[in-house]
Amino acid sequence: MKQFAILGIGRFGFSLATKLYELGYDVLAIDKDEERIKSIADHVTYAVQADATDINTLKSIGLKNIDTAVVSIASDINASLMAILNLQELGVEELFAKAQNEQHAKVLHKIGVEEVFLPERDMGRRVAQHIASSNILDLIELDPDHSVIEVNVPKSWVGKNLSDLDLRAKHGINVIAIKRDSDVQISPKATEIIKESDVVVGVGENEALSTLKETGKERL
Question: Does the pTM exceed 0.90?
Fold first, then answer.
């Protein structure tokens, strides 16, 4: 089973650690604040009060055996950088981090962090998509030009198959899955008939995907 370490148990770190634990993963939560560790102790596999900037401390609690680590110490940039350098020295294979701002994010990328989270920015983008279009359930940016999108099917799609809809030509969507009740159909066939309760998952260019905002008005 994959093991995660979350270093820094603020609001973001707490939410991330507890959700991973709910999903069935082993989660090690680390923070130098005793109260934060007490608050999360019953919601993760292990909770340890420790200073992430001290490599000897990280060694002693077995960080080198962790598959994935997320550094969520964004409020202290120096501590964030030291924690990441320590994890790299310990050989942690997969490393992510939360950034305080765009400048912090650039530095994290420079020192080799695979993915950097800016929760306020990312959440703002998702909220903007949600309030702009009633049928867009979720949008995850892959890069500045492309996103994965989840869409409630408009009425005009119901009863038609993917070939008839030609979503790639009309909306720039390459359909990669259809969610139907508790089932997920990966790489659905062109003959698949769309049902009213379906959710279509696709990938495409952001500019083309924006045409779905108008399509979504059909559901209002």
Answer: no
